[in-house]
Amino acid sequence: MLEIGKTATVSTTVSEKNTAKSVGSGSLDVFSTPMMIALMEQAACECIAESLEDGQTSVGTQIDVAHTAASPVDAKISATAKIEIADGRTITFSVSASDEKNQIGNGKHIRVIVNAERFMSKIGG
């Protein structure tokens, strides 16, 4: 059962591997926007993991976020996802990310619950 208001938080540390310079989303050694989004998606996946039945997974279908502050190498980053709406197989989350000093991003993320085997068979994988 998907519980409105349920949250999950995941964390990482900014390293050379997840900077904008390293992933190609900029030229600076700061936490990259793509990696912040990936962390937000990871939090959303974690938030619903216990509610999925055998053979189910979820896929991200929409994300709308603002990356509002930079975080340097060695900063600790946490991303939180909160279930706002559960409409059938579609779940809408509010997402946010913070470092030790500030909120660094926020927005909305939508995931859809799918049967993993059926989903992969449709794409030929």
How many extended strands?
5
Q: Whole-number radius of gyration?
A: 15 Å
Number of domains: 1
Query: How would you sum up the global shape?
Result: globular
As a percent range, the share of helical residues equals 10-25%
Spatial strand order of the main sheet:
1-3-4-5-2
Summed up, the helix count is: 3
For the terminal residues, how far apart are their CA atoms?
29 Å
CATH class: Alpha Beta
What value does the average pLDDT take? 97
| Poorly predicted runs of 5 or more residues | none
What would you note in describing this structure?
It is a single chain. With 125 residues, the chain is an alpha+beta fold. It has a single domain (7-123), classed as Hotdog Thioesterase (Thiol Ester Dehydrase, Chain A), CATH 3.10.129.10. It is 22% helix and 42% strand. It contains 3 helices and 5 strands; from the N terminus they run βααββββα. The chain has a 5-stranded antiparallel β-sheet. The protein is globular, with a radius of gyration of 15 Å. The chain starts with 6 loop residues before the first strand and ends with a helix.
